[in-house]
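Saturday, quiet lab. Running sequence design on the structure tokens for the scaffold JK sent over.
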């Protein structure tokens, strides 16, 4: 019989892994945790711009853009926390927020499935605005949260769907 420690260590290691081997990830450290953002596809670089998961940090200098044909239905972003973090609020900027022109020219997330490792699952509808939006989930100590694109707003010049932010608000509940 395995000891509870071995089982817990195995479960923690499994939770920290990306959902599939094809994901592209960006690791960083925040004040509260080691974090990793993983995406299921990435648009190839264009005109000196890159579109990887490192562009999901909520700045206006870039965006993650999915890299499959069409509007990216089924593509996802997963944010991993090590150790688990107490989370209630997710922040999403559902388009390429660099400028009004970049925002309108590229596809944006309209409807998304939000899931956590604790079994939470809900479909949400985002507004078609260039600002950061809050998604409130039941307060829980989570190892990961995932957004999967269900539907998008079309871009004026391209079919790729982009996002400029996918982060959890760790400061909100830091003292609990």
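Result came back. Writing it out in full:
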């Amino acid at each position: 019989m395995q000891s509870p420690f071995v089982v817990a260590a195995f479960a923690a290691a499994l939770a920290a892994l990306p959902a599939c081997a094809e994901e592209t990830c960006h690791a960083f450290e925040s004040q509260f945790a080691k974090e990793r953002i993983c995406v299921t596809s990435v648009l190839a670089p264009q005109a000196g711009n890159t579109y990887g998961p490192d562009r999901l940090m909520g700045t206006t200098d870039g965006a993650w853009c999915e890299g499959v044909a069409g509007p990216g239905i089924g593509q996802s972003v997963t944010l991993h926390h090590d150790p688990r973090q107490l989370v209630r609020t997710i922040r999403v900027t559902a388009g390429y927020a660099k400028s009004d022109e970049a925002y309108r020219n590229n596809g944006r997330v309209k409807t998304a499935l939000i899931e956590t490792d604790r079994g939470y699952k809900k479909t949400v509808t985002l507004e078609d605005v260039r600002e950061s939006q809050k998604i409130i989930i039941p307060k829980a100590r989570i190892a990961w949260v995932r957004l999967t694109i269900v539907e998008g707003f079309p871009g004026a010049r391209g079919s790729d769907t982009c996002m400029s932010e996918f982060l959890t608000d760790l400061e909100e509940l830091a003292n609990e």
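Notes for JK: Residues 4-16 form the longest helix (13 residues). The radius of gyration is 16 Å. Ask whether to fix the surface positions before the next round.
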